[in-house]
Amino acid sequence: MDRTARYGVATVVAAVVTGGVALAHPSPPLLAGILVTYGVGTAVALRYPPLIWGDPDREWDKRAVGTLSGVLTFGSFSMAGGVAGDPHYGAGIFALGLGGFGAAVGVWLADTSDLGG
What we know:
The protein is an all-alpha fold. It is 78% helix and 0% strand. The protein has helices at 3-24, 28-47, 50-53, 62-82, 89-112. The longest helix is centred in the C-terminal third of the chain and has 24 residues, at 89-112.
């Protein structure tokens, strides 16, 4: 996917997620964090399609994928429940976005480093 399309899709994803959270939790600092995290994270993830669609030439370590999924789920629910007395879904969405961003940047770093092999 070319850069312009990638950034366009990332902007739409970030706007939709941020807009959805804004309906329930109109907190400017939270919404700014969600907008940037989902925008940049989506752009990086779209740069590396195997992160989204899988790579047929490569076997993914299922333990790593399971660990990432489990910790993201646990962390998102923990953050959503721990911010206030009532579930704060905006905080949970932000936590999920931070985890996805970390995974996408990890793939980017592994791809561009000499450590990968």
